[in-house]
């Protein structure tokens, strides 16, 4: 279980004119999110949906242990997050694949960082590559891969660390519509065989509604906060993987849900950048 | 067509265009020599003959080895410290606070003009020549490394940090490979400058090196030999250039594919 308790995050903002040295430095802090509380259930997929600039990526940074909150805390299985945790995997927006490593090298990276030997790395990574249909691309560099394949390499890399928590920051946003659906299916397939907790940050209402058992709607800007929560039992593993379960995307309830999330987003203030800029 | 045959066709085209360029230079050169008809501009054939003579009696090889040795020593002394310091400065504000002033003072200096001072301090021997070349390479690599380290995309750093990499792990897995292509590019540029500066350094207080060979031939009015020395110095520069190319292909195989 991942719990955010009254979490606020801010970051050093704007360059102060004039001095940049240690002496006359005027440090202005810009709030990213304020007072966010949320619980992401174990073994479930949760989504955080919100417009750009609402601070949802900062939440991922804190949960991943890359960013320290200014107040409040994030807890994973009751333990406060202090720095990077070995069983948390993160997939970033543009996948964060290293261009100088092959598909195999990228997938093995978590194990390499922990000092695993070559034989051990291969033993653990090859089945994952096979599962994701990447076996015959092991020697390719990322620049040779399509967006969808890069995405799968990023998933493979995340799985290599045998995570119990997978954080995804806009994981599908640079894919075209069809590839995106295929990537979502791949994620669900992966989830099906592994009981891990997944938190997906997205700006896509449809994606959140299709993937998540719990959808958290964020709004506001500098700071953003959680404005609403929707529970979607249809997306739980019990329903989704039950025999004879249809595609949720064609159910009337799905459209209803998308509509409800959309109006929650609208209710939380301007949802496009231009309106937000004008307001500032 | 496979990627392999495409590559070899490309290599063949490259070789052909180099051959054409060499032939064109030789043709222009002999035309100019014939038109001018002066002893200080011998044609390519006379130069080639002198080149062959010098190569045969071993003196060309000796001078070229002395010059190449100086550049390599300078490189060995300057490349790694400059790269390490520059990368550290690009990634850490605290290191940069120390390094940035050095960069701004050292880089714009016309280091060749310091040759007399270097010679006064370090003597007339090998050390001065190597130090001069090393200074030039050092400041160029330092600047390139610092810039390259600053340009590393943040998501790459974050994604490797999220795997629990230490600072050293980050440096080795992200910072160095990410900056490597830029470092090699600036090495190529600074080696060109190094060869030019080496010529100047070798015109003083030495009896070895291609610079000495050229100036000595000039003094003896042995113009064909002088030109042979110039050709040898150019070839030395070309050799370094090609060596860096090969190093890049070997060390950065992913770059081949990025068009």
Give your account of this protein's structure:
The complex is a heterodimer of chains A (280) and B (259). Chain A has 280 residues and is of the alpha/beta class. Chain A has helices at 56-63, 103-113, 118-131, 147-160, 177-193, 205-211, 237-240, 252-267, 273-279; strands at 2-13, 28-40, 45-49, 71-76, 79-80, 88-91, 165-169, 197-202, 214-220, 224-231. Mean pLDDT of chain A is 86; it is low at 15-24 and 273-280. Chain B is mainly alpha-helical and 259 residues long. Helices cover 81% and strands 0% of the residues of chain B. Chain B has helices spanning 3-36, 44-56, 59-91, 93-106, 115-122, 126-150, 154-161, 167-201, 210-219, 223-251. Chain B is globular and about 70 Å long. The chains are: A alpha/beta (280), B mainly alpha (259). The A-B interface holds A 21, 61, 64-66, 84, 86, 88-90, 92-100, 109-110, 112-114, 141, 143-144, 161 and B 97, 155-156, 158-165, 169, 173-174, 177-178, 180, 252-254, 257-258.
Tell me the layout of helices and strands.
The complex is a heterodimer of chains A (280) and B (259).
Chain A: E1 2-13, E2 28-40, E3 45-49, H1 56-63, E4 71-76, E5 79-80, E6 88-91, H2 103-113, H3 118-131, H4 147-160, E7 165-169, H5 177-193, E8 197-202, H6 205-211, E9 214-220, E10 224-231, H7 237-240, H8 252-267, H9 273-279
Parallel strand pairs in A: 3-8, 3-9, 6-7, 7-8
Antiparallel strand pairs in A: 1-2, 1-4, 4-5, 9-10
Helix pairs in contact in A: 2-3, 2-4, 3-4, 4-5, 6-8
Chain B: H1 3-36, H2 44-56, H3 59-91, H4 93-106, H5 115-122, H6 126-150, H7 154-161, H8 167-201, H9 210-219, H10 223-251
Helix pairs in contact in B: 2-10, 3-4, 3-6, 3-8, 3-9, 5-6, 6-8, 7-8, 8-10, 9-10
